Every structure is written in structure tokens, then in C-alpha cells.
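Progress note, sequence design subtask.
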């Protein structure tokens, strides 16, 4: 009978993987939280508060901070036994998922906003400040709603020689439902909206309105592209998992190997999402010199449009 002490090669490799993952999470937290706080401080000091793009930037930085602040909990989860109960497991999972989805919806709204602002400015002008505040509220409301399936699947599980707060599904059917909902809500739907928005932006690329706010549009585009790059690996594994579960009745052995493979790479792919929260402040920093002028120009254009 094998034990699970440090002399077991598989146990040692598993412990080393947890240690590496924890070090990375600690680095992301140490870099990302101060970086996003700096973004919020700079925006509050330098930029006008009546610009919706600025509100979205603040919202994105805030959601990134909330997401990164949960990393010490997940570091503890990787290195030690989860001893603080099922309720806190659910709470921290809901906190993390809600902030992640809010970040995703904020990036999606940035694309929609840039599209309407440039292609159909009169439509956005009619929305008004109350409408903009309502959209910000909806971002967080839908962020919580979208995270419910993942939260329900979060439980305390026994892995190797320790207890962890992780995802558990009672059956392949439930596993399939959670994976499909996550792929649909966190990837297919928002990416479709982003692609559509940038398609219409591209059609108006020669118009003067685009050049009046070109720098701001480039920044939003970089944020969207960066988000897409760092989230794609996670959702590729999700899609592979969906196919593996669907093919399990016909090919149980191959399906089991594929599911084991996706599970082993899940933490690595998930770490890319935290990198995204650390990169956003760098994007703001590179654009900071011209960003203030762009938002001021945008405010002037909005006033002119609404007065027509």
C-alpha cells in the first residue's frame, strides 16, 4: 500500500506544482493590486468624472483588484488543508467569480460603448447619465448572476493528501451544464459582442469621429485583445472538456484520459486570467500621456452631439 509522504514521486511533483502555483499567485497579487490602485488614484486625480469611458476604466480596475485580493486565500488553499469551512469556500468563490465576470462584462461594455460613441453618437447621447449609472449597476448584477453555476459547483474536496476548496460536480450531466454555461456566458457571448462592435468600428475607420478619439479607441482595443489572449487557453480547455464528456458513453477510456488532461492543466490556464488583471495597469501607463486629452475631446464631442 502506497503512502502519500514526500518520498512518493507523484506526491512530490504535486506538491511542487502547488508551490509554483502559489508563488505565481503571490507575484500576481503583489504586482496587480498596487498597479490597479495606482490606476484608480491617477484617474481620480487627472480625469474628469463625467466621462463614461473613465467610469468603465475605474470599474475594470476595481473588479481586477477584488479578483486579485482573493489570491492569498487560493494560495492558502494550494499549500494547506482547507480548514475554514464550506461557507467560506462558497463565499470566496462567489467573490472571485463575481469580480471576474464583472471585469469581463466591463471589457465587453467598453467595446459596445466605443462602437456606439463613434458610429451612433446620437443614440448614446440619449442614454443620459442615469442610463450610464444603470449600466454600471447591471454589470455587477449580471456578474453575480453569471457566476451562480460555478458557485453552486464549488465544494470542499479531497485531493491527494489534503482537503481543498474546489469545483465538484455530482454527475457528468452537471459537469457538462456548468462547462457549457461558463463557455457561453464567459466567452462565446461576450466575444461575439466584441467582434460585432469592432466590425462596425472598422466600417467607420475613415471617418473623422474615429480620429478625434483614436488614442482612446486604441487603448480600449488593447484591453479587449489582451483580455481575449489571456482568457482563450482557459476556455479552450473548457470546450475540450465539453466534447470529452459528450463522447464518454462511446469512448469511455479516451474520454477519461482527456478529462484528466484538462484537469491537470486547469490551474495553469486559470493563472493566465490573473495575468490579465496585472497587465491592464501597464496598458494604462503606456497610454497615460495622451489619454487625458482623448477623454476631454470625447466629452466635447458628446456635448456637441447632445445639443444638436
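Output:
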Amino acid at each position: 500500500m502506497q503512502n502519500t509522504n514526500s518520498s512518493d514521486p507523484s506526491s512530490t511533483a504535486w506538491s511542487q506544482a502547488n508551490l509554483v502555483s502559489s508563488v505565481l499567485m503571490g507575484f500576481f497579487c503583489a504586482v496587480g493590486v498596487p498597479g490597479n490602485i495606482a490606476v484608480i488614484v491617477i484617474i481620480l486625480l487627472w480625469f474628469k468624472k463625467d466621462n463614461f469611458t473613465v467610469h468603465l476604466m475605474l470599474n475594470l480596475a476595481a473588479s481586477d483588484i477584488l479578483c486579485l485580493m482573493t489570491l492569498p486565500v487560493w494560495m492558502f488553499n494550494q499549500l494547506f488543508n482547507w480548514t475554514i469551512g464550506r461557507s467560506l469556500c462558497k463565499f470566496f468563490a462567489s467573490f472571485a467569480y463575481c469580480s471576474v465576470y464583472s471585469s469581463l462584462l466591463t471589457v465587453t461594455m467598453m467595446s459596445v460603448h466605443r462602437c456606439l460613441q463613434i458610429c451612433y453618437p446620437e443614440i448614446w447621447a440619449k442614454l443620459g447619465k442615469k442610463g450610464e449609472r444603470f449600466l454600471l449597476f447591471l454589470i455587477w448584477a449580471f456578474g453575480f448572476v453569471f457566476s451562480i453555476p460555478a458557485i453552486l459547483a464549488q465544494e470542499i474536496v479531497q485531493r491527494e493528501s489534503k482537503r481543498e476548496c474546489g469545483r465538484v460536480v455530482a454527475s457528468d450531466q452537471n459537469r457538462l451544464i456548468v462547462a457549457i454555461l461558463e463557455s457561453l456566458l464567459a466567452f462565446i457571448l461576450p466575444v461575439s459582442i466584441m467582434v460585432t462592435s469592432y466590425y462596425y468600428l472598422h466600417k467607420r475607420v475613415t471617418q473623422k469621429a474615429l480620429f478625434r478619439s483614436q488614442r482612446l479607441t486604441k487603448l480600449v482595443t488593447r484591453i479587449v485583445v489582451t483580455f481575449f489572449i489571456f482568457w482563450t487557453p482557459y476556455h479552450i480547455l473548457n470546450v475540450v472538456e465539453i466534447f470529452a464528456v459528450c463522447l464518454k458513453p462511446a469512448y469511455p477510456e479516451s474520454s477519461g484520459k482527456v478529462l484528466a488532461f484538462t484537469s491537470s492543466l486547469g490551474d495553469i490556464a486559470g493563472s493566465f486570467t490573473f495575468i490579465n488583471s496585472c497587465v491592464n495597469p501597464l496598458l494604462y501607463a503606456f497610454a497615460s500621456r495622451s489619454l487625458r486629452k482623448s477623454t476631454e475631446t470625447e466629452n466635447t464631442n458628446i456635448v456637441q452631439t447632445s445639443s444638436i
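Residues 9-306 form a domain with the Rhopdopsin 7-helix transmembrane proteins fold (CATH 1.20.1070.10). Work on this subtask will continue into the next period as scheduled.
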